[in-house]
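Same chain as my last thread, 467 residues:
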Amino acid sequence: FGFLFIGNEYFHDGYSEPHLGENQAVSMSTGIYQRLNKTFFNSCSTIDKSWQKRKRTIDTKLIVLFLMKIISGKNNHGYAYIINEIWDDCVHENIPLPQCSPISASSMCEARMKLPDDAIKTINKDIVVVWEKNTLPTTWKVHRIFAIDGSKLNVPRKLINNGYRVTQRTSRHYPYAMMSCLYDVLNSIVYDIDFVNHNNERACAEKHFHCLNTHDVIIFDRGYFSYYMLHQVIKNNLNVIFRIQEGNRNKVVREFSDSHYDDAIVTYVPSEAVKSDLRKRKLLSAFPAITLRLIKYFHEDVEYIFATTLTHQDHYKVEDFGDLYNQRWEIEELYKLSKSILCVEDFHSHNEKGVNQELQAHILLLNLARILGNDCYHKDDEGKGINDKDNRDNERKLNFKNCLFFIVKHLPLIIQSRLKKHFKSFYYLLHKYITKMTQRVRPGRHYPRKSMKPRTRWNSFDAPARS
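reply #2:
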């Protein structure tokens, strides 16, 4: 995208200045960006006071901007290249900088290690709170819908010293970690992540509960259902939808599966073996009976059995749960975007703190792109949505990958600047290009999930060791 900077005005190659009505629309719509920018500056200022003993050239907002730029580069560029790119962008857009010449790579490396561990996580939390207050997030029957799932990541070799393990009996060289994510599937916003050196997804899921409000709904895939997880969900006044795994099922679930009913409310009591295990692990000492609703759902001759705490059968219809469970696939799309497009596993840092920083910056970048893209996508000059719900043949959706890289290119305008003209310039460009970042919705496509990409770095987790 080409820009010309003349005096205090911005012009984009190939586009004229917006008309009066467009200017008014831009002024009204830039409010959310100004509030997000103000929140970002306030959060960074608070964090600066916690680790800076004196005024420094490199502050929190510059480190966060650097991290979000470097994690989007697929590990092709070093510190110096990214720093020079940030300086060039800021000079080009007339954005104030701490000094005229770019800082050194070694200075940035030292500064990012001084940043508090939870700094970027705090910024992300503050931005999500502001977004919630200034928009109307999509809900389902007044409930917020979340999915929790974990995914394994390849991490740098040196993290073996921090307890990260290499899978046994394989030819793998790099250790693995697990990233668990709390994801709002209706609004595509990441609320929380947990980065750990084990593969206990249930333990990570329990940590996410403190980020939720009363009566929020969590969707879990197979492998999460257990009496203890169900007990913790009810203890935190949450609602849940489990897909129950096949195999070792409770007696009540087996009887429901063999019956001709597709909807039943049962009393769930753990088996004696489960009680004994929970006592040994000192997780529970009392085991109250739990009222649970079991639902049987068929899709393409495959039987799905759901267990849910949404027991009001008149309000929550059986057919709703199949569509609701399909929304969980959004978190799988999130992991595909992170691993295949942004290459989240190409870490620049080789220590645990640096890897955690890059993951948090990755989540912050995704949330910023979603908030900015979705806000602009649902508006046009005539007040009519781009996505025409009345005509399913012409239904379109935002191409988030293109939108994401557009946001990455203009990050200094969003983060580093506090001038109103920069917000108007950015929003006008985003608003013009967002109409070209759409694609048709083509549901029902199925392809074999088989990757033909050659493995040149390491084998998969279950690959046998070479003889």
